[in-house]
Amino acid sequence: MLTPGRRGAWVAAASAVGLVVSVAGGATAEPRSPDDRTTAGPPRTVTLITGDRVHLDGDRLGSVTGAPGRDRGAFQTFRRDGRLHVVPRDAVRPLAEGRLDLRLFDVTGLVEAGYDDARRDSVPLIVTGTGARAAAGALATRDLPAVDAVAARVPKTGASGVFDTLVADPGVAKVWLDGVRRTSLDRSTAQIGAPAAWSAGYTGEGVEVAVLDGGVDGEHPDLAGREVAERNFTEDPDASDLDGHGTHVAATIASGHPRYRGVAPGARILDGKVCVQGGCAESWILAGMQWAADQGADIVNLSLGGSDQPEVDPLEAAVDRLSAETGVLFVVAAGNSGRPGTVNSPSTADAALSVGAVERDDRIAPFSSRGPRAGDGGVKPDVTAPGVGIAAAKASKGTIGEPVDPTHVALSGTSMATPHVAGAAALLAQQHPDWTGAQLKAALVASARPNPDLTALDQGAGRVDLARAVTTTLTTDPVSVALGTQAWPHDDDLPVTGKLTYRNTGAQAQALELSAQAQGPDGRPAPAGLLTVAPSRITVPAGGTAEVTVTGDTRAGTLDGVYPGAVVASNGLRTPVSIGREVESYDTSFKYTDFGGRPAQRASTLVIGLSNDVIAFPRITGGAATQRLPKGDYLVLNSVDGGDGRTALLPQPLLRVDAATVVDADARAAKPVRVTFPDPDAVETSGDITLSLTRGDRRISAGNVFLGGFGDRVATAHLGPALPAGELSTLVHAHATGAPIGRTPVNYRVAWVGHREVPTGFTRAPGRDELAEVRTSIGPRAAGRTYRYGGLPIPPDGGGSSTLLTPVGPDGDAVDRVLAEGLAWSWVVLVFDAEGRPEGMLRSPDRTYRAGREHLQRFGRPVLGPSLPRQEQPYVTRLGDEIGFYVPLWGDADGNRGDSGTETARTTLHRDGVQVGETPYAGSGRFEVPAGPGDFAVATEAVRLAGSSEFSTRVAARWTFRSDTVPGAEPAPVALTVVRFAPELDAAGSAPAGRVLRVPLDVQRQRGAPDGEVRELRVEASFDDGRTWSKVPVAGRTALVRNAAGGFASLRVTGSDSRGNTFEHTVVRAYKIRG
User: Fold this and answer.
1) CATH for 187-473, among 3.40.50.300, 3.40.50.1240, 3.40.50.200, 3.40.50.800?
2) 415 belongs to the catalytic site
3) Are the C-beta atoms of 865 and 840 separated by less than 8 Å?
4) Which of 55, 85, 220, 245 is catalytic?
5) Per residue in 239-280, pLDDT tens?
């Protein structure tokens, strides 16, 4: 049985059964990098397209706040492999129908793209459809005619109304996130045969190549006179190349340097800036593609990309449409993920010439992404080219690359391989000025030189060979043949055929003998008969064509997966072919019944793979849905809305798909969830139910959040078998506000943990004797700011849920009555400005309480400075050759981790005196570093948002340490020391003038890091905000600071340990001095 191909009926089929977001590695999940939770991270706030706000603590959910008018909203959450999604329930149906992009709710991805609230005040969208312009209205920022779309920016303050408009408009086909693509950066012209083309007189003269990248330094001597047009599509103020990537790419194409000569030194460059240092917005890329085509570019180089999905995305659609309408050739990087099935979009577009990277000896580069293409198993990349250690021009403002000489750097990546092929296409375009982009692509693929040790999914047709390309007269159409995927089971498979046309542009007829070769999914030769070609002998007339039939017969195969192969002609021409046998898969049927026994009109299902990478939202019609799933285990979250405000949650924590399966989601099986509180005046304000599931080394959490509480609207039932002990825990968490004590608000926070099964119904009424009383005090506080806080229950297995943020009283205090048994609690305080934007966050360590006891906790007391509060995750680690760095810069006197919004911030990392990374963040960054040992220095400096606090207005810190490559899958903590200033201050954060203040020095180290004995500490004080400093005496671990007559005291400490690691911390306005 044939599964529809990606470019034909696939999209219609996908929308009929629902949204399948990710299927990687067939039925078996590929090895993945460790979960990000192994390293701590800073807090973030992200506003969704619905206007709802998600507060993150590192990569974990902290709380959800509904947009105005959505204070009784409900949300579905799930977290797998370190990625958190928060999906409002009113977005689930349009997601399943394919009208919303799931990336809009990938909170981890939104932070990675720079779309959190600290860095962007709008949600960037691409809206497609005939009514896109009208629907977007004044929010539209750019027309994108290549895909019948507009780019739009939705202010976060009014996003909920815009969301409702867009999903209700029949003229809107789909709302996409305007996501961020990355440049594909991880001795060469001779390797691809360029000298032979130059000897034949071809330099690319008269050919225009558009470089859509981060800008081109047209003043570089290697590129003098080559840039003929320039356009900036980004938010940067000008088109300058600020990192050097675009200049390096352009020089690889067209440099005139005698030693570092480009492939096509006579070509002219169209410089379209579509990337900034943080990445390349998809709308910028689309606009640049349109501009390049309108300018008459012959070739467009795109050394960038992002992850591919089965659906045709806007960038892929634009490549195909502009190629067909204008004849331009898009040469696109395949990506740097290195594993099978990771080739990047838009190189996956049919018309794109997708380029992988090889070493100098034509071995595939370890980082080069490999096929097959998502959806149809098609062959991508199409060709390869040199991409390792490529030397080319260094932009005057460039920051990347290994220096070769003062004006040249070496870089690696498919970004570097791609311009080799763009340059090669320019030479062919000069040779054949009447050829279209499709013809240039066909000639480059037909003349490529394959590596016999690689398959077509690794290299396409092989490494580009210009010496052959300028003489080739025989090509094929198409350049590769995708025969699709036969659906499992394979006992009824039928032969599948595809047409292949040979085209001869020469003056002599060519007689060819043809054969077909294929490899199995295991890399071994495929069984005889799996791939054949007929006829096996043809003659292609001069100036004419000959057609053959390629047949794939998967009945001959014994393994499931993709079979790459080729039709090989006697003259050496190889045309890649692929055909697939679907892995063992079954149709899973879902049946939904409402509380009255009728087919449910409003229901939803989320399917999360436990043994693979599937995420699916089946499309439900008439109370039923069908989803095709590979054999394996799944977590299934079903819900049925009764239409009367009631919701039945019907999760099946373990669905084993090894046959055709039916999931019966019947709301009548669900029992009510009711939590009552000992205060008769208590008002329930939120409730959530979170599942934590552990399978092997994989941890998945998923749940539902109900703002406004459970009330009478939530019921639950467990579907499927109970799980073994230790695999499943369920946390039920409820919050209510009680009667205040004078001016002090009172909250009830209760939670319970269950195991093996999700409760079918849940009724609890905790008494006062089961609760501990926690009194919270926050201060000193800044004027004009609002302080809200919440408590997160932490069960023994480390799972958790979200919290409701509630205000403190006018005196900065609050009372919480919390369930003490079997749980720890972690507390979070957020500070908001007058417009409701978050400005800072404090987070406590996990704390346990005893029922019937009163406990006091304080937040925000100075000195606020760098700290390493106790927690499970290390703050600074190295894994392989990546260093993850996060040190909270505003930890308080009570051991709470602290972070703040900033006016300016910068963190840099140097290795052996050379800067290897920089971020615009306070005390945080993730840096790729050269392999092997080195001496590192990390420095960070940040200025707090004006008015957010009068304390610690500027914090700076610097550390040095030695580090080496860390093998394996577990990150290793880096040796790092923090010294906290811990004086006794009054409630206002001040100390008396003119007196000596004892400042204890609290030395903190990372857990698990190599120990080093701290040597003598040097402390300095300043009373003019750091303009001048004076040394102060230190007795043991206590500094003795004689205060000035007034103002503020600033403190600085420097020191080292017995291993040679050093540290320095500076806190400006550490405390006040009262006269």
Assistant:
1) 3.40.50.200
2) yes
3) no
4) 245
5) 999 999 999 999 999 999 999 999 999 999 999 999 998 899
